[in-house]
Amino acid sequence: MSPHPAPTAPRPPLRVALAGIGVVGGGVVRLLEANRDLIARRAGRAIEIVALSARDRHKDRGIDLSAYRWEDDMAALVAADDVDVVVEMIGGADGPALTLARQTLGAGKALVTANKAMIAHHGLDLARLAESTDTPLKYEAAVAGGIPVIKAIREGASANEIARVYGILNGTCNYILTLMEREGAGFAEALAAAQAEGYAEADPTFDVDGIDAAHKLSILASLCFGTKLDIGAVTANGIRNIIAADIREAEALGHRVRLIGMAERDEAGLSQHVQPCLVPADHPLAYVPGALNAVVAEGNFVGRLFFEGAGAGAGPTASAIVADIIDIARDEYGPAFAMPVDALDQAPVADAGARVGKHYVRLIVEDRIGVLAEIATAMRDADVSIESFIQRGNGTEGGVVIALVTHEGPARAIHAALAILAASDHVIGTPMHMPILAL
Ligand SMILES: NC(=O)c1ccc[n+]([C@@H]2O[C@H](COP(=O)([O-])OP(=O)(O)OC[C@H]3O[C@@H](n4cnc5c(N)ncnc54)[C@H](O)[C@@H]3O)[C@@H](O)[C@H]2O)c1
Ligand SMILES: N[C@@H](CCO)C(=O)O
Ligand code: NA
């Protein structure tokens, strides 16, 4: 086929059905209506919404949907002869989203999804199904929202071996951390504000416990390293235990707290971790505020790539979904994970305890004689060397805050020291630790 098809031969419209009309689905309707003509010119054909389906037809969504056919039963979207593409914006790894995805690909229709939980858990099976029916499976909106990072890695960086990918992958957590840092907001208040903006998952524990970022990281890792998706191998720690004192002490140490997902592949195997980290204040990731996301990918020829943009919200997520639809309209698609599923490797999981770095440790302790000696002894017994140490008298929960930074050492030594301290009668609550990013 000519790479420059004659503009005088318009193709029939691409007919799209939308399943799930919430924050993201509403954004897709608005975008397709607002940019209809431009999109048609770019795609080389019109893109038409022909049917919608969601749980509640009569909910007020603030948009006029009366022009579109409504199906109460989602399966009808797949069965309809006038639907070419099904866009899944329901959410959830299993349940109706997965049923719809399987039905769609099984019927040889294109699937676009924003659902990182489903792709992280079932992406390989869905990709196999898409291969068997030679159908597009696209999920740009699932990772880092509006940032076209899937496209950039699948296509723009596809010549490179990538050994490390990391970044800020959850808009809700970044929004909460930024509000805590800039306005002194409390955790619960900041989470409520993120939910009101439409950033959070239906169950926000997925956001704050790092699970949503883990879903996204596992997808990026597969794409970057050519490995089979392995969500079970990702460790996830969220931001629930971060208190105002951590933000303050991080700042005093010249750092900011960010939830970082990082995946690396080397001779030791594949490591995939989501955890709050101290990021040096002059690192580009420290400048990423609010619901923005950022992804860093290091390619062996291109060097360091840095992508930043809105990671959540109706408009940015719709932008990613509609870009996928336009690719389908242009017949531009390939294997979902950049190579056929059978060509992906199975990498061994690297030993997380062996990861070497400096750590920030924060404890709240009773203000009494011998407590500092107890901390120093625990560190010595676990073979952790202390680089700097701060005690603040303005305590929380009836204690004083101790913040310290360790010299470089393996994560397993920090865990051992914290286990000793957690058992102490003089330590209040759970000790907190965060690696210090040094890249
Ligand atoms: N909100 C964001 O910023 C964002 C960004 C990227 C990806 N996503 C993903 O997009 C998807 C949708 O997110 P959202 O924020 O729009 O959620 P939402 O809760 O606002 O909307 C979900 C929609 O799905 C429908 N739905 C839910 N369960 C259903 C069921 N059992 N049967 C039929 N319909 C059902 C609801 O009626 C609603 O219309 C999720 O996979 C989410 O992870 C969201
Ligand atoms: N809840 C997700 C939506 C985007 O995937 C976030 O806050 O990043
Ligand atoms: Na994206």
Description:
- There is one protein chain.
- With 439 residues, this protein is an alpha/beta fold.
- Among the domains are: 159-310 and 347-352, Dihydrodipicolinate Reductase, domain 2, CATH 3.30.360.10; 353-435, Alpha-Beta Plaits (2-Layer Sandwich), CATH 3.30.70.
- It is 35% helix and 25% strand.
- The chain is built from 14 helices and 18 strands.
- It has helices at residues 23-34, 36-43, 75-79, 95-106, 116-132, 149-156, 171-183, 187-196, 205-208, 211-225, 244-252, 314-329, 371-381, 411-422; strands at residues 14-19, 47-53, 69-70, 85-88, 110-113, 137-138, 162-168, 235-236, 255-266, 269-280, 292-299, 303-310, 356-357, 359-365, 386-392, 400-406, 409-410, 427-435.
- Strands 3-2-1-4-5-6 form a six-stranded parallel beta sheet, sandwiched between helices. Strands 8-10-9-7-11-12 form a six-stranded mixed beta sheet.
- A hairpin with a 2-residue loop joins β9 and β10 (269-280).
- 47% of the residues are buried.
- Bound molecules: nicotinamide-adenine-dinucleotide, L-homoserine and sodium ion.
- The site of L-homoserine (HSE) has 11 residues, from α7.
- It comes from Sphingopyxis witflariensis.
- Residues 360-439 form the ACT domain.
- This is Homoserine dehydrogenase.
- Keywords: Amino-acid biosynthesis, Methionine biosynthesis, NADP, Oxidoreductase, Threonine biosynthesis.
Compact summary:
Belongs to the homoserine dehydrogenase family. By secondary structure, the protein is an alpha/beta fold.
